Amino acid sequence: MIGKIVKKISTIKNQKLYSPKDIMELGVILNAASKPSREVVYRLIRSGHLKAIRAGAGEDQPNYLIEGKELKRFLKRRYNLE
């Protein structure tokens, strides 16, 4: 499974901005059942583990964007790939 995640990490572009939905579709952040999960992405953003840019003016449902290089940094630390 780590091999598949490493391949997916290599496709992430440093300058591109990724939404939580994009990250879920990449399948690099998984829940306890090893399934891609948008809720886990939001939890990581809210807890400060994954740095995101807050886009849009919505207070009730803010839109977040994560820069590709930040996503790579987080994933390499999470899966001990450094």
Overview of the structural elements:
The protein has about 80 residues and is α+β, with helices and mostly antiparallel strands. It contains 4 helices and 3 strands. It has helices at about 1-10, 20-25, 40-45, 70-80, and strands spanning about 15-20, 55, 65. A 3-stranded antiparallel β-sheet has the order 1-3-2.
Layout: helices, strands, pairs:
Elements: H1 2-10, E1 17-18, H2 20-26, H3 38-47, E2 53-55, E3 63-67, H4 68-78
Antiparallel strand pairs: 1-3, 2-3
H/E topology pattern: HEHHEEH
- How does the major sheet shape up? 3 strands, antiparallel
Strand order within the widest beta sheet? 1-3-2
- Number of beta strands: 3
Class derived from helix and strand content: alpha+beta
**Bulk shape:** globular
Strand content: 5-15%
The multimeric state of the shown protein is: single chain
> Can you give the helix content as a percent range?
40-55%
Keywords:
three-stranded antiparallel β-sheet, 4 helices, alpha+beta, 82 residues
Provide a compact summary of the structure.
This protein is an alpha+beta fold.
